[in-house]
Amino acid sequence: MASAPCRERTQVTTTELAAPALWRRYDPASVGFGDTREAEDVGTIVGQPRAAEALDFALGMGRPRYHVFVHGAIGTGKHTLVLQQLHRRAATRAVAGDLCYVHNFDDPRRPRVLELPAGAAESLSRGVEHLIEDVRTALATAFESEEYQQRRHAVENDVRQRQAKALEEVSARAQAAGLAVIQTPAGLMVAAVRDGQVLAGDAFEALPAAERARLQGLIDTVQEDIERTMRQIPRWLHERRDRLQALRAEVARRAAGPLMEEMRGRYASLPAVLRHLDAMQQDIIDRAEEFRETESVAPDALLEGLQRAFAGPPSMRRYRINVLVSHEGETGAPIVLEDNPTHDNLIGHVEHGAQFGTLVTDFTLIRGGALHRANTGYLVLEAHKLLRAPFAWDALKRALQTGRLRIESPVQALGLAGTVSLEPEPVPLDVQVVLVGEPLLYHLLSAVDPEFGELFKVNADFDDEIDASEENQRLYARLIATLVRREGLRPFDRSAVARVLEYSARLAGHQQKLSARIGIILDLLRETDYWAAQAGAETAQSAHVQQAIDAQIHRSDRLRQRVHEEIERRTLMIDTDGVKVGQVNGLSLASLGNVVFGRPTRITARVRMGRGDVVDIEREVALGGPVHSKGVLILAAYVGARYLPDRPLALSASLVFEQSYAAVEGDSASAAELFALLSSIANVPLKQALAVTGSVNQHGDVQPVGNVNEKIEGFFDVCRARGLSGEHGVIIPAVNAQHLMLRHDVVDSVAAGRFHVYAIHTMDEGLALLTGREAGERDATGAYPEGSVNRLVEDRLWELAEKLQEFSGARPGAFLES
Fold first, then answer.
1. Could you tell me which of 477, 391, 489, 373 has the C-alpha nearest to residue 427?
2. CA angle 49, 708, 694 (to 5 degrees)
3. What would the pLDDT profile of 254-288 be if each residue is shown by its tens digit?
4. pLDDT at residue 143, rounded to an integer
5. What pLDDT, on a 0 to 100 scale, did the predictor assign at position 545?
6. Rounded mean pLDDT of the chain?
7. What is the distance between the alpha carbons of residues 142 and 136, in angstroms, rounded to a whole number?
8. Mean pLDDT across 496-514
9. What is the DSSP letter of 766?
10. Using CA atoms, how far apart are residues 550 and 535, in angstroms rounded to an integer?
11. DSSP string, 194-217
C-alpha cells in the first residue's frame, strides 16, 4: 500500500553518552591554589556585569526618577552588589545635613523644619537647652532685683494713688454737701447725714418731702461722680498692666539679650537658625513672667520617649529642638536599609501622649522615617515588604514624585482626618531608592502600575548562572576562598573547592555554567565546615563537601524515598523489564517546597477506529494543564501530517498518565506519549527497561526539557533498587546533553555498562531504541521499508481508514481513491 512520495528528514545516528559526558569534572589543579588560605579575596560579585553596569549607570545619573529595581533569584548576591556600589558612590559625596523640627511661634499647628550642617543639630539642641536654663536664671535674678521691684512698685503705687485721690475728691464733695460715702459689700454708696449720724431708710423717709427731695438730688449727683470715677479704674488698670508689661519686656530684654546674642554668634552663618532665635527671643520676652512661675527641669533628669517629651511645662517645651536626623560623625552620603518599610517607618509620624484622658501632641513628638535618614543619599528597600505594608507604596511614590517629604498619617493623606493634628512643614527630598525583589514583582508592577516605570527607570537584572569560562572559574574559586575566610571557616583544600565548583554547575543545570546563587553555595560551605569539624580535619576536603551534599539530600528525602518504596512494592506500577505495547516509562518531576526529585510514570495509549480524535484523559478530567494539552495536540498533528498527509485520520486514541492523581503540566512527556501512541497504532512493543523524557514538535524533532538530571536519577534509583541488568537506561533530547551533571553513582554505573544514557534528535531515533527495530525512512517512491515501525504505523492507519469507510457504507475503495 503506497502513499504519495514526501520528503523525509535524514536520520541522525543515536548517540549513547559515555560516562565523561555525563558530568563536568573540575580538576583540582586548575583551581590555582593549594587551599583557600593562599587565594586573594574577590572584591566584587562574580559574573553579574549586566546588573553591575545598570546599577553604576543609575547611581551615576544622579537625576530624579532614575531609581533602580534590582531583581533576580534569591541568593544571587543582589544585596551584596548593591551595598558595594552604594558604599563606593557614597564615599565620594558630601555628608548629609541634619534635620530638626522647631516650634512655629506664629502657628503652633505647623512646626517648622530646620536644615543644618552635619552634626549641628545636636549641638543646637544642647545649646538651646542650656540657653533656656541660663535665660531662666537671668530672668529670675532680674525680676528679683531691687531696681525692678522699685520700678514695679512705682507703677503700682501710681495707679493706687490716682484711684485713692479720685475717691478722696468724691468723698470731699459729698461731705461738703452733707453726705457720706460708705463702703458696702455691694460697692460704694452715698447716704445723707444728720448730726453725725447716717440717716437710715426709715429716718430718711421721715424727713419732710422738700428736704428729702433736696438731699436725693445731692445724693444722685455724688453717685454720678463716683460712677465716673469707677469707670476710669479699668483704664488705669490697663495702663498699669501695659506699663508693667513694658517694664518686664525691658528687663527681660536686658537680661536675655546678651545670652541670645552669644547664641546668635555661634550660628551667624545659618540664617534659618537666626530667624528662629529671633522668634524665640521675642516669645521669651512676651512670656517672661512665665519663667518666674515655672520650676527648672534639668535636661539630664528628663525621661525618655513621651515622658521626656512632656516633661516640664508647655512654655518650656516650646523652645526645644526636636532633632529628627543627625549625621554627626558620619562620612559620605547616607545609606539606609529599612527592613520594615511600613508607612510610618518610611515617611515618619507624629506620636501622641495621654494627658488627663485626652491624646495630645506637639512638635517634640514628630518622628522621622527612613526617607528622612536617607535624604541626599540612598534608600534600599525589599519590594515584597514594601508592597505588603498598607499605604506604604503610595506614600513612597508621592514623596518621590513631588520631591517633598510630608509627614502625615494615612487618614490625613486620604482626606479623612476629623481631629486637629499637626501639619509639619514638608522637607525637600533628594534620595535614590533601590528596590530589591523578585523578577515577578518587577514585571507585575510594570504591567499594573503606570507610575512605576516613570519612577524606576533602571532595571538591574541579576542572572542566576555564570558562564564557566576559565577566568570565571578562577574568580569563583577565589570567591569561595573569600566566603570561607569571611565566615571564619576552616580552610578548604583545592579538591574541596573543585567539588564545590561541580556542585555549582549542578545547581546551574549546565556543564558550561556555574550557579550565581551564592547563598546556596555559602550554606554548603558552612555545612562542609561542620562535617570537617566532626571528622577532626584541619582542612575541608572533597569528601566533606560530598558528605554535606548527601546530608542535605537525606534531610529532605522522605517524600522521594516513600515514592520509591511504593514503586518497589508495586503499589505504583512501573515496569523496568520486558516489553509492552502502548506503554512507556515517562520521566516526571515531583516537588515539595524546595525539594525536587524525578520519578518514573507509566504512560499508556489505546487506539481504536474513530474520527481522528486523540483524547488527553488528563485534560478531560481537568488534571492536565494548558502546556500539557498543547503537547498532546501536537502529537495528533504530527501523526496525521506524517502518515496520512492527504487523508483524514480514522482512529480514536486515548493517552493517560497512569496512577496520577494530581495536576499534570508541561510538555516534557510529549515524546513519551507519542512513542506510546505509535506503539499502540503499530502494535509494536516498547522496552520497559528504558525511560523517556523530551518534548516533540510537529516535525518530529525532540526538544530539550528542564531538570533532566533529577529525572534521570529518579529512574536510575528505581532500577538500581530492582537490580541493574545492563539493559536499563534513559532516552533524553540530544540538546540536554550539555545540561548533564549527574550524581557520581549514576556516572559510575554508566562507566561500568550497567546503565545507559541515550541522546536523540528525532522521534525515529527513539523508536529504534525502544522497539529494537528500524524506524524506517521513505524511499524514492515514498514508501517505508517493509517491517519498519513507520510502515506498520502507516499500514494500520490505512487499515482503520478502510474499515471506517466500510462501516460507513461507502463503496469499497471510494474513500481511498477520492
1. 373
2. 115
3. 888 888 888 889 999 999 999 999 998 888 888 88
4. 81
5. 96
6. 84
7. 10
8. 93
9. H
10. 16
11. ETTEE--HHHHHHS-HHHHHHHHH
User: To 5 degrees, how large is the angle CA 802–CA 604–CA 701?
Assistant: 80
- pLDDT computed for residue 764 by the predictor: 93
CA atoms of 89 and 507, how far apart (whole Å): 33
Nearest partner of 653 among 669, 671, 674, 667, judged by Cα? 674
pLDDT value of position 653: 83
Q: Which residue has the cell 505588603?
A: 388
Model confidence pLDDT, tens digit, residues 371-404: 999 999 999 999 999 999 999 999 999 999 999 9
> Bridge-partner residues for 691, per DSSP?
585, 730
Q: For residue 580, what are the β-bridge partners?
A: 686
Residue 307 is predicted with a pLDDT of 45
Residues 6 or more apart from 23 whose CB is under 8 A from it? 502, 511, 740, 741, 742, 744, 747
* pLDDT score at 175: 63
Q: Which of 680, 660, 573, 679 is nearest to 619 (CA)?
A: 660
Tell me what pLDDT residue 293 has.
60
- Identify the band that residue 667 occupies on the pLDDT scale cut at 50, 70 and 90: confident
Higher model confidence: residue 308 or residue 571?
Answer: 571
User: Which residues fall within 8 angstroms of residue 146, CB to CB, at 6 or more apart?
Assistant: none
Task: Find out whether 291 and 140 touch, Cβ atoms under 8 Å.
Answer: yes
**Among the listed residues 490, 494, 456, 457, the one whose alpha carbon sits nearest the alpha carbon of residue 474:** 494
Mean pLDDT of 195-209: 64
Query: Taking residues 411-426, what's their average pLDDT?
Result: 72
Q: Which of 281, 280, 274 is nearest to 258 (CA)?
A: 281
Q: Distance between alpha carbon 772 and the CA centroid of its chain, in Å?
A: 57
Distance CA 554, CA 253 (A): 83
Q: Is 623 helix (H, G, I), strand (E, B) or coil?
A: coil
Question: Max alpha carbon distance in the chain (Å)?
Answer: 164
Q: Closest by alpha carbon to 24, among 774, 737, 800, 805?
A: 737
Which one, of 502, 702, 598, lies nearest residue 15 by Cα?
702
Rounded to whole angstroms, the Cα distance separating 396 from 391 reads 9
189 Rama class: left (phi>0) / alpha (psi -120 to 50) / beta:
beta
Q: What is the DSSP string of 61-91?
A: H--TTB-EEEE-STTSSHHHHHHHHHHHHHT
- Closest to 716 (Cα-Cα) out of 502, 562, 567: 567
Cell of 527: 555545612
- Summarised one tens digit per residue, pLDDT across range 454-503 is 999 999 988 888 899 888 899 999 999 999 999 999 999 999 999 999 99
Report the distance separating Cα 638 and Cα 674, nearest Å: 9
Helix (H) or strand (E) holding 764: helix 763-771
Query: Distance between CA atoms of 344 and 390, rounded to whole angstroms?
Result: 10
**Whole-number Å distance between alpha carbons of 13 and 760:** 8
CA distance between the termini of the chain: 15
Q: What is the mean pLDDT of residues 702-713?
A: 92
Predicted TM-score (pTM) of the model is 0.78
Position 229 scores a pLDDT of 67
Amino acid, res. 217: G
CA–CA separation, 776 and 793 (whole Å): 11
Residues 6+ apart with CB under 8 A from 525: 480, 483, 484, 487, 489, 492, 500
The values of phi and psi at residue 634, to 5°, are -65, -35
